[in-house]
Amino acid sequence: MSEMSVVVAGGCGFIGSHFIRLLLSACPDARILNLDLLTYAGNPANLADLATAPGLAFSRCDIADPDAVRSALTAWNVTPRYVVNLAAETHVDRSVLEPESFLRTNVLGTYTLLELCRGIPGVRFVQVSTDEVYGSLGGAGCFNEDSPLLPSSPYSASKASSDMLVRAWHKTYGLDAVITRSSNNYGPNQFPEKLIPLMILHASSGQELPVYGDGSNVRDWIHVVDHCVGILAAMRQGRAGGIYNFGGDSERTNLQVVNSIVDRICGHRDLIRFVPDRPAHDWRYALDSSRARSELGWRPEVRFEQGLSETIDWYLANDAWWRPILTGEYLRFREQWYGARR
Ligand code: NAD
Ligand code: DAU
Q: What's the mean pLDDT when you consider all of the chain?
C-alpha cells in the first residue's frame, strides 16, 4: 500500500478540486483517484491546471452505485490509504425542491463508500460534513463537536444521516474514520448558485440581488483553502473516530456580505431585493474550532475582507469559467426557485 494513495470522491466540485490541488502540492508523489459523477455542480475545468499531473486519475462514477465504485477502484489498481468523501448534493434551496437526490447521494453514497472501505485493511475514511447538522443558533454561543444534531433542511438531514452512518461503521466494524464539519466556504470555483458568487455575478451585470427575509441571518465564512488545510490535517493526524469543527471566525449577516460585494463592484445597493424567506432558514451558525486548534495545530489564515476581495477579482477575471455553466440546468432551477419569490 502506497502511503499517500487517496480516493477523493467529488473532486470536480468546489471544495474537492481545491482539496486535490492542496494534496498534490503537499505530497507531489501522491496517487489520487478522483471519483465524480459530474452533476451540474461538477466541473472538470476546476482541475484544468492539473490535467497533466502524473498521479491524478479520474473516473466518472456515481458513489451511490456500488458496482461502478468497485470497477473504478479495480481499474485504478492501487490500494487506497485514504478515502475522502466530498461528493454530495450541496445546495439547501435545491434540497427543498427536490430532496430525493440528496438522500441518494449523501446517504446511500456515503453508505456505499463505507462498505467499500470495510473491505480495505488499514484504510482511513474521511467524511466532509457541515455545521448545518447542528441546526440553528440564537444570538449567542457556538456549536462544538458534542452539540446535538438538529438538522433543519433535507440537505442538512441527509448530511447528519451520513455522519451517523460514519459513526456507526467506526463503532460497529472498527473502521478508521474521521468527520470534519466546516462553516460556509467561499473562494474561486464555487458554483454560482451559492450566496457569494451569485451576488458577485448579479452585481456585476446589474441584476437584482435577492436577499432572503430581512438579511439578518448570520453565517461564519471560511476560505476554501483554510478548510482544505483542515481536511488534510484531520486526514493525516485526526484521532480515529474523531470529529473536527473548522470555523472561519468571520461571522457576518447576509446583508453585510451583500453590501460589501455591491460596494466593491458597483455601489448600487438599490439592486438589493428582500424576497420571501427560504423555509426552515437557520438563523445563525458559529463554530468552536478549539479541538482542531489544539489537536491538529490548525487555524484559519485568510481574513474575510481580503479573501472576499480576491474572490470578487477571480470571478470578474474568469468569465470563461462561469459563462458556460450559467446554462440549461442552472437557469431552470433559478426560474423555479427565484420565480416563486418575485
Ligand atoms: P459542490 O456542489 O461544489 O460539489 C459536489 C461534487 O460532488 C460535484 O463535483 C458533483 O459532481 C459531485 N457529486 C454529486 N453527486 C455525486 C455522486 N452521486 N457521485 C459522485 N459524485 C457526485 O460541493 P462543495 O461545496 O464542494 O461541497 C463538498 C462537500 O463539502 C459536501 O459534502 C458538502 O456537504 C461539504 N461542505 C460544503 C460547504 C460549503 O460551504 N460549500 C461547507 C461545509 C461542508
Ligand atoms: O454552512 C455550511 C453550508 O453552507 C454547506 O453545508 C452547504 O453545502 C452550503 O451550500 C452552505 O449552505 P447555506 O445555505 O448557508 O449557503 P447559501 O450560499 O445557499 O446561503 C448563504 C446564506 O445566504 C443563507 O443564509 C441563505 C442566504 N441567501 C442565499 C442565496 C442563494 C440569500 O439571502 N439569497 C440567496 O439568493
A: 97
